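Section 3.1 - Work completed
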Amino acid sequence: MVDVIGAAELLGHESEAEMLAVRLAHAQRLGNMGWAEWHLHTGETIWSEQVYVIFGRDPEEGPIPLPDLAEHVDPADVATLDRLLWSVVQGVEPVQAEFRIRRGAGDVRDLRVVLEPLPGPGGTIGMHGVIQDITGRRRAERMVSESRRQLLEAREQAAEERHVMLALREAILPEPVGCLDLPHTRVAVRYVPAEKTANLGGDWFETAPAPDGLLLLTIGDVSGHGLPAISRMAQLRHALVGLAMTGQAANRLLDWLNELVMHQLKDTTATAIVGHLDPATRVFAWGQAGNLAPILVRDGVASHLPKPRGVLLGAASGSPYELATTRLLPGDLLLMFTDGLVERRTRDIDEGLDQVLAAARRLSGRDLDDGLDALLAEIGGPNPEDDACLLAVGILDQ
């Protein structure tokens, strides 16, 4: 009876040992690590199964003897292996290092090795430790590092491109400092660049005296972004300034600009408002090409002016542009703007227009320059996706 019980206990212990071995092997596979021993005096080398997997070696070939280990290490890391082995032999504490091994053509693996000496009667008789394949981890780290490097380079390039584009815009379209003081009239303008570099676009404005004593007031937006849009914007704006010297009405100028875009600026469209203000009569005669209507602020009430007929520049040839006239009164304020002021991905355009209408009510002709800054802050600041132009005209009291 006693023998039967003893045999059962023995079988139980053997079963537990087998389960422990299975779990240990499973843990080694999950961690991609194994253990090894090298005995210096006898030359015996012992590897666990996972070390053979790490080295890509057939277990029937047996483990790699310590003197031959350097032949499997990347030549650039042999010195690291030598220092590791020397530290183990000379010390008593575990030491670790990382080096690469070559398993075949182009198959390089990153290993982390932790070794400690095997003490014997006469000192260190060998070493044993843990070998882990960390190739995936190091590859991921290198990918992250490379991604960071590329991102930094992209940011630096984007910043340089933004600087160049803003400098080019400034050279083409210098913004006046403060307001333009004219008889009984004040004019203020703003160019608001997009927050994102790639979205600097072709928004523009112009305020200039015409030969007949009228004041040319115009804003526009050329389709696209970046240097191509800025280049087309410069061509269109300079063409308008030259055409305005003919003294023709605003709708006729839009006719000519449309033909220019149709025949000279292929695959381009643009919006615009072109108008003339007569300082003596305060009559604003204007036309539009697909642009949002100006806002008129009168007696604290802000409303859109009725739009005359007009299509996008470059959309169709031969479509007439109508001329509208609006008589302004002392104390009136006229606000013209491109769509980048109100269009946002995060809100509907009608919501943006309502915000601008509400903010425009608080504009004052005598504090127009500061008022535009306050308006921009009230509607949420610069548009991240698109640039914008604003042109405000205040009619002062007599």
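Second construct:
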Amino acid sequence: MSQGWKTLAAGWLVSLVGLMCLTTTAKAQNLTIEITRGSDQATPIAVVPFEFSGQGGLPQDVAQIVSDDLEHSGQFSPLSRSALVSLPSSSEDVFYDDWKRVDARYLVVGKIEPQGDQYRIQYELMDILGGKRMLGETLTSSNGNLRASAHYISDQIFEAITGIRGAFSTRIAYVSASGAGDNARYALYVADADGYNSQQILSSDDPILSPAWSPDGQKIAYVSFESGNSAIYVQNASTGERVRLTSFRGINGAPAWSPDGSKLAMSLSKDGQPEIYVMNLASRQLTRLTNNSAIETEPDWTPDGQSLIFTSDRSGAPQLYRMSASGGQAQRVTFTGNYNSDGRFSPDGKTLFMVTRDDSGYHVAKQDMDTSRVTVLTDSRWDESPSVAPNGTMIIFATQQGAQGVLGAVSSDGRASFRLPSAQGDVREPAWSPFLN
């Protein structure tokens, strides 16, 4: 069930604590990707270990990170290193016919050499069937930025082949919890998109909910209960500086940034039932958009900023509705099934991702906005809080693995999926950052 909807409908905290308060720790923790389903249409690609001309070894295996990134996208199926027919380090050393025999469609080679306290990285991408070099670049990286450089290389390769901008250099935010009852402890983390370089940016004795990245990737809005009641905060992800935007009596929840970063949509119950409001962040002026006896929550903006989608039970069960960002009549947009919530748009606005319910549980699904066709993307039983990658190719969400809360991800076509469990226990409430440059 969608977490934002469930917490409102069931008293805001009861179900959340029941799901989150397992045995975890609040210290820094990397999430490890476990592939659960590979695409049978993934493109074969060979990523050869990069030749290193320095002494000893590198602290990061750049080529392996690139290979992992491409595999996690669901678009590529990297050859195992044992299947590599040779170990070229430049395009001049590549014999295309050799790679055709192992059905490699593309090939990545490279070399790394130390330059003072930095590294010079050269990489190249070859089209094996076309028999040509597609891409080549030289970059400089510090020791501490080798993973970031690998993600950058993955982004360039992904875009060169697919025509879609890569999202491997983006980040995710998520919530972890430790203990239970009076010993409960909560933490907000940010990490690389592959779960590494996790950093805690907030720790609290009280629940943290609904993290949402600003469009520039600099700030995160979230809900905290540290003052005894729900309140919406905005925090700088790098400096930790933060401000409290709302702390009205009742529910202050589900913050969502407008595409231009000037406004924040939210659900407030200060006037009775939870309704959708929009705050102008410069003036702090609130505009109420909905006025209904139903529960209205989980707003999200269309990519053009002209409309909002939100969850409402005004039809008797949670469904998704759309209305102008300036207010007016709301129109129902989901009709398949009796439960659809937590809508999130693809970057082009053509697809609506959401949580839907059927006889087997709660799943991440997508609806084509032109045809209204709904496709269920996951087969797990308890999915919630979907968040879409900025290139629209993957959706990250919270789910259950046994008794543990984990993060899951599924490709937008549903063909590939993976999970990001924490070695320390429960993680939930994921949010995928925008492109960071």
